Amino acid sequence: MKRDRNVKIVATLGPASDGYDMVRALYEAGADVFRLNLSHGSHEEIAARHAAIRKVEQDVERPIAILADLQGPKLRCGVFADEDGHVLETGAAFRFDLDETPGDDTRVCLPHTEIFEALTPGARLLVNDGKVRLRVEACGPDFADCTVIAGGPVSNRKGVNVPDVVLPLAALSDKDRADLEFVCALGVDWLALSFVQRAADVEEARALSKGRAAILSKIEKPAAITAFDEIFAASDGIMVARGDLGVELPVQNVPPIQKRLVRKCRAAAKPVIVATQMLESMIESPMPTRAEVSDVATALYEGADAVMLSAESAAGQFPVEAVQTMRNVAIEVESDPIYRDIMDASRNVTKTSTADAIVSAAREIAETVDIKAICCFTQSGRTAALVARERPRVPIVALTPDAHVARRMCLTWGTQSYLTGTLTRFKGAVVSAARTAREGGYATEEDQIIVVAGVPFNVQGSTNILRVAPCAERLIYATDPE
Questions:
Q1: Which residue ranges in the chain fall short of pLDDT 50?
Q2: What is the pLDDT of residue 243?
Q3: 8 A C-beta contact, residue 300 and residue 283
Q4: pLDDT value at position 170?
Q5: Strands, DSSP E only, in 157-197?
Q6: Number of H-type helices and E-type strands within the chain
């Protein structure tokens, strides 16, 4: 199905979107990538969702990407004697410790020795998504005496954030390692790592995945902002996960961080997803708020590759409507002349290779001549990513012999991926590109396309040739080279 916009939509599957019919409806509404959240659901449920996606992919005959999101080391407090919990008053004293006795309004267990090892006086502890805030006054290897600086309700197993210190935690827990092996064996295309703090976290996941999935780092901790350049270099893509990021940092810091990260990703031709609470009200309402629509639009104007739905599609009452809303916003924004002005003005690429020059020339030719599509052949997806970095005005048709690469490219801005046979000659590439452009509805026999490829074929990183070709190319040769 030919998409009518460039930005990609990531939809999370869950209880509200289980089964083939719902996955098919979400795909037809505009979802390009489906997210499997390993924080929720058994392996059996995840496997069933994976099978439904692959069945839809088979039936629509188009690649669909699957993103498996690992839970990461989620920190939670213990339980309270009163199941309803307690309300902590501002200014009150409160202790966290390792005593598993049910807590009260003066203390509770925090079963994470690594937190106590890292804490220092003055550090903040945030509970229940930051609704309750405490300051550490004194601490030791098994306790932290705190003052409540912003009171509120606490109850069993609420999440705890520690924004002011780098915790000695690996991004992958034992559960994550088991989940990683499970989803890689199933056959997912992207792995999202939660609570990344250092490049070593990404390198561990890459070693465990053994090339079976691309690695996407979720930026949701202050430590990840500090070490972003190293994390970014080790990652294949980035998710700006604004939920925890907005808890651990002042909320006013998040928008400029989002803008900086999106620009860095675009400059490096790595996909970036903007995520969390984008259409939060659509969990219960068929219509989003005006502010939410503006939030989605802002991500598009910044040049994000993808925007993501979480609970809206996983547990909400209107999952299909939420995807349709994102699609409609994307179509409207991308048709705005200001959007094109921003994309052109924010193109800041230092050309250091033949491939950089080739894709830049392809975009410039497409803007000068009546070109209907840029067709690129790619072994790894890198050529398509470089073309997408240019944000051309015409569709990007990416052809690859590798089904895994075709699926991964579903996350790349403006790129429509197609499987092609293994090619050995550029003449065959031109014929294959022309046929795909015609059959995909991107061009007619009267139109022209640009073909970008690397010679010799089947060698990664060899992009070195560009041709403007008639889309009736099949008529030129007596026989099809393929």
A1: 475-482
A2: 87
A3: no
A4: 78
A5: 160-161, 190-193
A6: 17, 21
Which domains does the chain show, CATH number per domain? 8-73+170-335 (3.20.20.60), 86-161 (2.40.33.10), 354-475 (3.40.1380.20)
Q: What is the pLDDT of residue 8?
A: 98
In degrees, to the nearest 5, what angle opens at C-alpha 144 toward C-alphas 139 and 148?
A: 125
Closest to 127 in 3D by CA, of 100, 101, 143, 108: 108
**H helices of 227-373, where?**
228-234, 242-248, 254-267, 290-302, 311-314, 319-334, 337-345, 354-368
pTM of the entire predicted model: 0.91
Contact 420, 63 (CB under 8 A): no
Show which residues are catalytic. 35, 76, 218, 276
Q: What pLDDT is recorded for position 287?
A: 96
* Tokens 């059996």, residue located: 44
Ramachandran region, residue 118 (left: φ > 0; alpha: ψ -120 to 50; beta: rest): alpha
How many angstroms separate the CA atoms of 377 and 453, rounded? 5
- pLDDT at position 476: 46
Q: Among 179, 228, 182, which residue's Cα sits nearest to residue 201?
A: 228
The pair of three-digit structure tokens given for residue 157, joined into one six-digit string: 């197993």
Rounded to 5°, angle at Cα 315 from 311 and 321:
80
Tokens of 408: 């991964």
